[in-house]
Structure formats: structure tokens, C-alpha cells
Amino acid sequence: MSPLVRYAEAQIPTAHGSFRIVVYRNGGDEHLALVRGDVAGGGVLARVHSECFTGEVIGSLKCDCREQLDSAIQAIAAAERGVLVYLRQEGRGIGLGNKIRAYALQAEGKDTVEANLALGFAADLRSYEVAAAILTDLGVTSVALMTNNPDKLRGLEKAGVAISQHVPHWIPDHEHNKDYLEVKRAKLGHLDQAKSAKSRENE
Questions:
Q1: Is pLDDT of 20 > 70?
Q2: Angle formed at CA 113 by CA 105 and CA 202, multiple of 5 degrees
Q3: What element of type H or E holds 110?
Q4: Is the pLDDT reported for residue 44 higher than 90?
Q5: What residue segments make up the domains of the chain, in order of their start?
Q6: Is domain 4-89+131-179 classified as CATH 3.40.50.10990?
Q7: What residues contact 132, with CB distance under 8 A and at least 6 apart?
Q8: Residue 167 per-residue DSSP state
């Protein structure tokens, strides 16, 4: 991993109140953290979110990324302490162009995992070392992580992030993304509400 550099920061007003935005540079990429309150220490409510140009910028309904992003920011604002780490990992790491190529294959009948594999990629190419470095730079020692993805939990822990709590982060589905969300559960192992509750009971 290229050295991570804290490059810029400022306060910004949002629909959910004021946040501190911190921009990091890692090689040719820029990532950011959206911070509310004093996040030094443990038990910090956190979301590690990978960019989704199609959902977050142009409003595609094929995924739940925009809703997950908005919900996480709202939750952090309500808690008055937390951090959202935004990583530049479009399309689970395959990039925007290949993501659109995968969409074309999905239109022919493949699901999101099958489309990635047909293009020669793994189902998920994301990594979390940058997220871990950002959290460390902010003084975060452990997180209450908003996610449904067990690979993200394992990836962050492998990168050195202490996870004190798993917070389920499902968004209601609709006609355009219900098949995508079902593939997340069935093929990518994303935890539904019942499984998440059971896993916490067994901790």
C-alpha cells in the first residue's frame, strides 16, 4: 500500500448537520472520512463505504448504495459521534467501466456475482488496509461497524481494526434491487437481521 497522507480537512454543512470532512491521498487515489464529534477512543459508530457513482451520483436503482450511505450519515449524526470512511473502490473494486460491462451481462440474465466472474474478476476485489489506516489516523481504537457483509468484517479485522459491535445495516428493497439484495444474502453471505441477531447472541 502506498503511504497514506492526510491532505485536507474542513467543516461542511449537510442535511444532517455539520461534519468534519478529512481527505486522504493514497498514491493516485483520494479517500475521505466524514467525522462527527470526538472519535478518538473505542466503540465509535462507523461505516466503511465504497463509492458507487451509478447509485450515489446518477441515481441508479439497481443497488442500495445511496440509501446505505444516507442511512449511515443519518445514524452518525443522531449518535453525535462517529465516522464514515468513504473508499474509492467502485464496483467492488473492478472500476466504473467494468461495472457497466457487468450491468450489460446482468441484462442478459446473469446475476451480479456471475457477471463479475464472466469478466474475469472475483466476486469482490475490495481491500480495507486504507480504511484501517484512516481510522488509526483519526485515533479510533475500536468501532461499532454498520455493515451486513461478513467479508468486510473479516477484512477490517485482518487489517487491524478492532470491531466491538456489529450493527446490521439493511435497507428496504424494491422492485429494481430486490434480486441484487437476494444475491448478497445467498451468494455473498450478507447477514440478514435474524442471522445478525443470532451471531451477536453467540459472541
A1: yes
A2: 160
A3: none
A4: yes
A5: 4-89+131-179
A6: yes
A7: 156, 159, 160, 161
A8: E
Q: What is the 3-state secondary structure (H, E, C) of 15-71?
A: CCEEEEEEEEEECCEEEEEEEECCCCECCEEEEEEECCHHHHCCCCCCCCHHHHHHH
- Does the annotation mark 111 as catalytic? no
What SS3 class is residue 11? Answer: strand
Identify the band that residue 174 occupies on the pLDDT scale cut at 50, 70 and 90. Answer: low
Is 124 one of the catalytic residues? yes
Residue among 29, 126, 154, 192 flagged as catalytic = 126
Q: Give the sheet arrangement for strand 44-50, strand by strand.
A: 4-14, 17-26, 29-36, 82-87, 44-50, 143-146, 163-167
In angstroms, the CA 162 to CA 143 distance is 6
104-156 pLDDT, tens digit per residue, is: 998 888 877 888 788 888 777 678 999 999 999 999 999 999 998 888 899 99
Q: Would you say residue 178 has pLDDT above 70?
A: no
Rg for the chain (alpha carbons), in Å? Answer: 17
Quick one: cell of 80? 453525535
The pLDDT tens digits of the residues spanning 147-167 come to 988 888 999 999 999 999 999
Q: Among residues 27, 11, 87, which one has the least CA distance to residue 56?
A: 87
Q: Check 124, 137, 154, 179 and give the catalytic one.
A: 124
